[in-house]
Structure formats: structure tokens, C-alpha cells
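Hi U.,

Before I forget, here's the chain from the pilot set. I'm dumping it here mostly so it's searchable later in email.
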Amino acid sequence: MIRGVNRVLLGLTGLLLVALGGSVLAIGLGAPMPSWWLHRGRHDVLLSDAERTRWRDQGWWWPVVIAALAVLVLLLLWWLVAIVRRHRTAEVFVDTGDGDGAILRGRALEAALTEEAGRLDGVDQAHVRLTGRRGAPRTRVRLLLEPHVDPGTALDTLTTGALTHAREAAGLATLPAEVRLRAVKHRAERVS
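Structure:
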């Protein structure tokens, strides 16, 4: 959901800035001004002295400005935290088939997946993170492969091995995975 909100807000902000900047540029280059336009000519300033000081003596002006800016800052901070925060699944619901269910800790499933993926042939290092909802978890897997390993074989082994075992152990119908593979950089060998 946060990706959708992020994209919509960025898109709307971009469209607003392009429309405003494009119209100012067009008028600055001599395009005819619409009747509702804020300024009267090419050399008109953005805020005149009269516009800038019009509300200064009103008692309500500064509290409203400060409150609006505070709300804007809080919204922007919420947006930033929502983008930066990585959502981890704390627990996974396991259907036991008897009408009740069991709760599996997300970190325990991550640790088991990481250990099994790390034992695969040619895997130097593995890191697994569980995301999504507790009834429909998703995995993000990063594998650091040794230089001689075929990435396709490593991916196939991970899919049929560790991911299938985790899906079956948790009683999940599906366990979508995003897998990122990277090879270990090795030093150049000396030839004598």
C-alpha cells in the first residue's frame, strides 16, 4: 500500500510542479496570460511587498501559518518513515487443520531459511527477510555465490529445497520469494 501512496504523491507533486513551472516559463517567454493568472506581466515579482505584508497585523495569521507548516512537516516525516521502514513479518499464522491455528515467529522462520540456504552448495552467505502479512508472508532472499557457481542452478536448488521446505513446514499454499544473487569477488590469482 505504501508503494502506491508513494507513487501517487510523487506523481501529483511532479505534475503540479511541471504545470506551475511550465506556465511560469511560458509566460516569461511571452505567451499570453490567462485572465485568472496571479501576476500582471513578465517582470512582475512572485510576492510584492503589499502581498507579503498584507496579513501581518492580523492575530490569526501567524498561528495558522505555523500550524499549517507543522502539519506539513509531520506529514512529510510520516511519509519518510513509511518509505524507509522495512516491514518485517513478526509472526506467521499456521493452519493446523483442526480449526485452531498456531503462530510461528517470523524470525524463527527467517533463521531456518537462512541456515538452510547458507548450506546450499556454492553459497558463501545467505540472508532472508520475511515481509508481507501474517497469513500471506513473502520472502526476500539474498545469496552471495562463490565464483564458480551457476546462478540458475543455485536458484533452482534454493526454490526446490529451502523455500519448498519452509512453505510446507508453515503449511502455506504459496510462499512468494524475491531472490537476489551476487557473486563473491575473488582476488586475481598469480601466475608464475
